[in-house]
């Protein structure tokens, strides 16, 4: 059959193109625009070239925030992924417990992020918070407002409370898709509980785990709302992550140029790391 | 290797079974001889797999006991019973190589590595996957995967019994034949007690020494392929085995005379029939003679299936199948006679006979 060639077909893509332009391309280009120019208001712009990028990359402030981000992501991934798997393995597979567990697990995910922050902000307060007050009453010194370690612990526990459910639900979906015959065969082959996990459950969960890992990495790397509400980036700059730093630069100090440069660098880091994780994980999957 | 005794087994999946229809498996009381090759034959949902899972210990029976060589194993786990089972759909360990898949049941039982290697190499040759031993099992086709499942069932040589749950469903027809012959050879060689579940009569009849026919949660007949063919104990066995199945015609029986509506035949014996029972005559299509004498029939269709012809006819208002040799003549005014020795009489679907 003869194929019809008609360049007018390109017009079909136009509506999507316009939408994407307004929602993504134009804002992004504005950021790029700010990142290479300097302005003193009055809509006057001066070419700045790569000055802002150099400034950002040479500042301790950027590297400190980035390090905090990486440490935070590493800690919560190291806890949430194994914990999520463990909980998913112990969830009931059938019966009345299933809907109960699923709803129970979904609850933290349904709470708006700033509310999660507020809950923990109040929960940890030494004067009125259940957690803070109890710890104080037990004689354990705890104060997330002025102690760096306590602030970090609070943020990590909050993130685990908030997001482990996502890992659990994804893993659970992977687990229930395993046919019974696999467990029956394993029991006939005399496999131990560990062997069942290692050779049946883990391989079957691999794909959902990859998704869980990527989502949790990206989200934790971009975390803003909760630490902003709980600690406001403090004490000092101890919990100032890149996103908080970015907002401080852009809105607090109104340094649009450096903020735009930081945004672009931030975006590229997330893109690069996600791409590396994805490639490494899918390659190990595809070998042989 | 073991003799397996099933004592008054019953199983219901729901709790608190009351009426017989609550049971997926009605009373089964039977003994499997050590080293026998059995086929469990029956339509889908007749309780074959339930029975198999009870033997292997994946399922606890609601009532009754299972004994291996006289020892009660009802409460023992699958591993303690030392059973091998192959499932309908391939189960392989994705991340392992073909070799490791086969070695898995042995390594779990702490078999020395040189013994593992010997067994696995032997099985690899048998299932024809020796050249893929070091490949990941994930990349294989469905029938290769099923061969691995079969291999894992056969790799242990000390098992009490090997159970097969419709293992060749996903395999190509010609490969089916090859694998079945290999299983049969293995059985002769090692004398495993084998139980083979299938709904395919050819598979059952070629594999097994004894075929156990199940219907609606009950064992209706246990016999050699010849017995099942010649003397089906239940009309279901008559229908289910043979192609086409047995003709079953409603019949009035008076002494040794059988009234079929459009004709009558006489038996060499007088069956004992309880009063009020529904009586039927069963005759296999192979034993109906088509000719110019006997009872009149009208022919509706003739199917040529190669070396034979199947004549579909209507007799006394009932469909009747007749097998005729390929050169067999089909007269214009067809009449039929029944081979007297091949007639079976049924009362309420169960066979009543003069001789056994």
- Describe the strand arrangement of the main beta sheet of chain B, using strand numbers: 6-7-8-3-9-10
Q: Report the major sheet of chain B.
A: 6 strands, mixed
Contiguous low-pLDDT stretches of chain B (5 residues minimum) are: none
| Low-pLDDT sequence parts of chain A | none
Total E-strand runs of chain B: 23
What does this entry look like structurally?
The complex is a heterodimer of chains A (288) and B (356). Chain A has 288 residues and is mainly α. Chain A has one domain (60-286): MetI-like (MetI-like fold), CATH 1.10.3720. In chain A, 73% of the residues lie in helices and 2% in strands. Chain A has 12 helices and 2 strands. In chain A, helix 4 crosses helix 7 (148-176). The longest helix of chain A is centred in the N-terminal third of the chain and has 31 residues, at 60-90. Chain B is of the alpha+beta class and 356 residues long. Chain B has 2 domains: 4-230, P-loop containing nucleotide triphosphate hydrolases (Rossmann fold), CATH 3.40.50; 247-352, no CATH class. Helices cover 25% and strands 32% of the residues of chain B. Chain B has helices at residues 48-56, 78-81, 98-108, 113-127, 142-154, 173-190, 201-207, 225-230, 235-240, and strands spanning 4-11, 25-32, 37-41, 63-68, 71-72, 83-86, 161-165, 194-198, 210-215, 218-223, 247-250, 252-254, 257-259, 264-266, 279-283, 288-291, 295-296, 298-304, 308-315, 318-325, 335-338, 344-347, 350-352. A 6-stranded mixed sheet of chain B has the order 6-7-8-3-9-10, with helices on both faces. A 4-stranded antiparallel sheet of chain B has the order 2-1-4-5, covered by helices on one side. In chain B, strands 11-15-22-23 form a 4-stranded antiparallel sheet. In chain B, helix 3 (98-108) packs across helix 4 (113-127), helix 3 (98-108) runs parallel beside helix 5 (142-154) and helix 4 (113-127) crosses helix 5 (142-154). The mean pLDDT of chain B is 83. Classes of the chains: A mainly alpha (288), B alpha+beta (356).
